[in-house]
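Regression test attached.
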Amino acid sequence: MIEFNSATKVYRSLLGRSVTAVEEFSLQVAEGEVLGIAGPNGAGKSTLISLLLGYLRPTGGSVTIEGRDPRSYVEKNGIGYLSELVTINPNWTAESALARFATLAAIPPADKRGRVEAVIAQLGLEEHRAKKVKALSKGNLQRLGLAQSLLRDEKVVILDEPTHGLDPVWTQKFRDIVDGLRRPGRTILIASHNLDELQRVADRVAIIDKGRLQRLVQTGYDQTAETAGTYRMAVVSGAEKMKEIFPAAVDIGGGEFDIPITNLAELNAAIAKAIAAGVMLASFVPSRSVLEQQFREAVGEKN
Amino acid sequence: MSDNLRRYALWQMRDFGRDRAIALLIIGLALGFTFVSPVKMMQVQITETSAKQLIMVSLQQIVYICAFVALNGIVSNDRKQGYYRFLFSKPVSIPAYYAQQFVIYFVGFMIVMAALLGLFAFLVYPLSPVAPLTYCAIVYLSLGGIAFFISSLFRFDWPILAGVFLGSALLHTIWQFSDGWRKLVIAALPPLNKFSSMLGTLLDKGTVETNDLLWLLGYSLLFFLAGLFVLRRRPIA
């Protein structure tokens, strides 16, 4: 569906200075997939997205959507897009902004009213519909941006920092919205700094840094899932047995222990062993998620 | 032109009304007042001849400034403000969007000019608006292509646009009788010098010099097409 083939983007100034924003980036995103894009500030996430929308052209390699040049794809089909900066004319009202975007999105006039009402209801914008964009709070503006990206049933949806500025309630609702967007023919790209968010909603996460693809992480768990890392175990009783069962465990106090684990089998055996020894477990979680672990390894602790 | 873009024309017209038409009306009224009020204060009888002279003097300034205000930022504003991000994620061609905007702004500009001339007819002298409106259309269309091209190339287009217009006017004045390379330079500059004689001929005879008109509109059309080419080939971000 989406293909980056050694895509490179170099910005050149008139004085001859150049900055490489994306370098030799290759990745294929399948139909029906939700791909997360993670990376530190300045890693090249927004440049990648601009390449996908045809707002920028690669200086090397290629970017295609369904085999076509991105701009030509967008002009024919449109893309559901939420930009990191929600830039909508501040003098428009929330409702008129949606009506405009619905017109441009080629929603038939007979359906336009209904679609606008549907996204207003979906994003909880009912009481803000008559407000000018400049009067909206950051969270409401973000919801308006998200609403316009959902107006039409697009095959490609790109969300750049979608939960930025959302409160916890709407962050949770956002997950439901993404779950609702999933369908076999649709490809969704989500760029975010929020690794926990990506872990929950994405099938794979591309970790990029310095314009390069550093790692591609599968977020689901299976037999072969990479589980190496430190797990934190909280125990209600039997704490005295922990050192005996897990010689490498570090007691961090309050009935909690940090335990280094190398693979999934070892992880399950350790839990079974602890329970069999009469340890009452309260929780057992990675002290860093798999994605966070991979991210830190890929981009370094400095980020 | 796609159906969705055609339907969007009403929104573009609304934007023109809010963002530019009011400013144009204020500028037109303020400048018009400075020309008309001294004549009114002298309490002389205004005849058709003096009304035409008044239009000759005032309209040249007003139309030039109003066209500049109407046209500057026609493309670059969306780039500067970042509005392009949502607009062009929709199934719409960028050159077609701005070509339509150019036409819509032309219609809006003509409505404002018609309103100003209507006021002149009501308050000063009932002169036929056909010739002055024709002049307004020629000025907008002649400056429009150049403004469109510059706006499609540069984010901060208005200083460049002002420099090109003023520089052209200045060089046409000081080098008008020059030979050699100076003659070549002014031949390549926007032929804005042709405006001055045009309004007089229009008001007196109701016609314009065809060669001048073709030269002005052809020059502008060339730049308009170049602007469309830039929008097609050059990324908007």
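Expected vs. actual: identical. The mean pLDDT of chain B is 92.
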